[in-house]
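To: structure subgroup
Subject: Chain for Friday's discussion

All,

I'm putting the inputs and outputs inline so they're searchable in the archive.
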Amino acid sequence: MTSTHFDDDMVADITREVWAAMVDGSLSAHDEPGAPTAPSGECDLTGAVDINGTWCGTVYLSFSLAAARQAASKMFDAPPDDVTSEDIDDAVGELTNIIGGTLKMRIPQPATLSVPRVTAELPVAGRDGEAEMVSELRFAWLDEPLMIGVWRRPAAAAD
């Protein structure tokens, strides 16, 4: 199915599916029954990818450092204390890349996906305030925060 519209349900479903395949099945949205009401930490590491084509935007995935370390530990089957900062960046980038790539497949083609970038801050999605928030969802995993966001940019701002 192709569309130029992403909604919260689609973004949440894709995030859960990717998380379950790559990490584990225990990701929960804050509004789900039994989900933590307030994760213990802040998001301090963000992966982002840009989609450019018939639809232009940015997909980002933000973690607490503790959650990113645990995700890398599970993805690379290594004890958390053995996970390096490079492993953490690789895990954050790969999860962001797969979620962004799955969203990219839902829009009319052609479309390209940028190389993931990992930073210690949320991405600046648009230039001069032209970006529009399409979806921003908060999840909890191991009582740590996880946030996914999708911003739409005008095609001219994507160049």
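Points worth raising on Friday:
The two ends are 26 Å apart (CA to CA).
Strands lie at 28-29, 45-53, 56-63, 111-113, 117-119, 132-141, 144-153.

D.
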